Amino acid sequence: MDCKSVMAPIKVDLFADELVGNVIDFMVEKHMGLVPVAERDGTFCGLISGEGLMQHLIPRTLSTVSHGFKRASFFDESAADMQARLEALRHKTVGEMVDRDARVAHPDTPLIDALMMICDKQYVVPVVDDAGKLVGAISFFSVLYGLKEEHTREQAAEAKAAEREARGAAKENGQ
Fold it and tell me: What CATH code would you report for 3-172?
């Protein structure tokens, strides 16, 4: 199998020059924590993640020293403080926040290679054409859906073949 057989086509374009607020709203609405981003010409730009966005909700003073901390409950933080940082984040451009080092696949890339990327903690694999245009994405869910559809197609083909074989046998027997 190749990537085009399981990739989900991109139905909503998210662009690098948009405000992060638009992407946050999209991510919340679609329950997606990692989404591909394109330039206005359709060229793949990178991935933006909920994890990357959440890092901006941590107070700057804590984020610079948090590497050794497992918890920060000693830090008194209000919802209003986090909301203020979220509002500031909403007014940045997506291009400022996007991970431009994301690995990509092509439609004819073997699916196993995309699965290896997913297992290597890149949970969404953008699929680009030869010109670098974003044409789809592969995730755990699109792989499962694609495999289910492929299995259904194989079962239908097997049933048709068995039906043809039964008709052929019936014809030979003069029925």
Answer: 3.10.580.10
